Amino acid sequence: MIRFFSILILSIFITSCTTNSVSNNNATTGNKLTFEPNDNGEYDIIVFDPQYDIFLKSIARPKTYNTYEFYKSKNRMYTSIWNQRHMMPSVYDQNLYAVSIDLDSNVDYGLDFEYKLFNFFQFIEWKYKVRLM
Signal peptide span per the entry (predicted)? Predict the structure, then answer.
């Protein structure tokens, strides 16, 4: 009987020590955030964190505080830094930088989009106490 239990425990131990093969191939698994225009031809951002809307309404500066060019240039810099951190999961929190952001500098996304994206980066800095720039 003792021999049976020892064989059972040994077999459980051996099967529990096997590794699962997990592919960490972010480029091919679709961990990329792309932006598509809606039916009206406008771009929009939807952030699923309820604190983002609170941040946007209470902490963020008004949309007209900065120019469209300011938001656009800052977003390009933030996106570049974000994507660099996404590509280095061993250095930066892979849960925070889970997706890369595909932002085309040749596309006119509009003031609303640029404002919301800029404030998304500001929100990340505020909520997670990280410094992107």
Answer: 1-21
